[in-house]
Amino acid sequence: MSASAKTWLERIRALPLDKADGRPIKIMNVCGGHERSITMAGLRKALPDTIELVPGPGCPVCICPEEDIFEAIQLALHEEIILVAFGDMLRVPVNVAKAEARTLEQAKAQGADIRPIASPTEAISIARDNPGTQVVFFAAGFETTTAPVAAMLAEGVPDNLSILLSGRLTWPAVAMLLDSGTPGFDALIAPGHVSTVMGPEEWEFVVKDHKIPAAVAGFTPESLLAAMYSTLRQLIEGRCFLDNCYPQLVRAGGNKSAQAHLATTMQVVDANWRGIGIIPASGYQLAEAYRSHDARERFPTYADDARKRAGEMPPGCDCAQVVLGKLYPNQCRLFGTACKPRNPIGPCMVSDEGACRIWWSAGIREPAAQEEREETLA
Amino acid sequence: MCLGIPMQIKSIENYTARCEAKGVSRDVSLFMMQEEELNVDDFVVVHVGYAIQKISEQEAQTAWELYDQMLAADS
Ligand code: SF4
Asked: Could you tell me if the CB of A322 is within 6 A of ligand 1?
């Protein structure tokens, strides 16, 4: 840990942190990258017991609706297309009968032409290289990832490329938690790269409407600790404001050109989150002028409305609770037993941004005691 | 998926920049950087092949130290 990270830790330790009710102060993060840094740097152990760090809705792969993944699998299996998707999506399981393809990876093994990509520009190249074939880009992600998809569309895409869009906005999930009356956290670390693109102002509602301290953080332990220190001081002093602890990248107003591409090519709509349900104004859909590139219009629909109800997490998987910060990863009964990165049961163990996967990578291998689980759920 | 990686611009052609980090070079789209003046040798944070923000050299260095630690921890 760097000298400045140690200094921040000492500052936090010097704060009067005991709450009257004896419950720990919970600080939530909503970014897989933050959770990864926190876990890898061992910040939970380094901080006083009075502070708990809760991973929240920070994994777009984990909340990508089951019916969207099912639709991508069916399209790839039944249409003469090339399906491209960010690599993380390939191993996310859906709930189907044993003999059927559970993941895009399994559909690929059954002969579907499915290719992992690392950038929207690769989708363009593949479409250009295969002019006689329809290419479908299954694009799931939060704002940071959806903005490049918007930029790709705005710049112009080949006719044979269409998008199966599953983009989501981060802040509405936090708004939903706060509106529920039992948010499960006392302070918020706002995401660094989402704020870089969309502007930190998006998170003002947390402090203004809910009087919950918030700070935008970068990905170094110092930046995260500085943000934690800021929110703790805000809490102690009873004075909330949105702090920016990542000024190197996060600037007022965010990236205007990215936002312009999003506004031109997409609309914000109510959207389903896997295991969670519909969150108002939390998803992207292609704007009218770009509908001709909407895979949902171009191909017969394989979306099955019944799945929207059934589209939960796999049986026994607590991913939805983990994503909402209601349970810690190791409090899922399957963590480290039936569910491991090699044989993931739920999406949180698949994605690099899934809290289960991150905790596993950091060496946490055993499920927590049942009492701990009950305590957290209480 | 939301983690950007700092890279240095080596050449620019229209909206595409050849960028380098740790000896690896990649084509990076500058289509989301139209508000920003960018030059060869500048550093940008790249996410899924698109530059999302300009960054100082020193910041790029700090970010790389962190990613190195994470990658080491992961392998
Ligand atoms: S450990 Fe596996 S089964 Fe449990 S919540 Fe995480 S992903 Fe789901």
From this structure: yes
Decide the pairing of beta strands A214-217 and A51-55. unpaired
Picking from A31, A120, A362, the nearest residue to B2 by CB comes out as A31
pTM attached to this predicted model: 0.93
Residue A237 CB-density burial (10 A; 0-12 exposed, 13-18 middle, 19+ buried)? exposed
> What is the DSSP-derived secondary structure letter of residue A304?
-
Structure tokens at A330: 């190791």
| Under 8 Å between Cβ of A224 and A208 | no
What ipTM was reported for this prediction?
A: 0.88
**Ligand 1 pocket check for A346: Cβ under 6 Å:** yes
| pLDDT for res B74 | 54
Pocket test residue of A349, A353, A377 for ligand 1, highest count of atoms within 8 A of CB? A349
Is A137 a pocket residue for ligand 1 (Cβ < 6 Å)?
no
CA B26, B27, B32, B35 torsion-angle sign: positive
Please check whether residue A350 lies inside any domain of the structure: no
Distance (Å) of CA A361 to CA A336, A346, A354: 11, 16, 11
Count how many domains chain B has: 1
Residue A224 falls inside a structural domain: no
- pLDDT tens for A315-355 read 899 999 999 999 999 999 999 999 999 999 999 999 888 99
CATH number of the structural domain spanning residue B13: 2.30.30.140
Encoded tokens for A251: 């600037």
Q: Is the dihedral of CA A359, A363, A367, A369 positive or negative?
A: negative
Residues A194 and A144 sit within 8 Å (Cβ to Cβ): yes
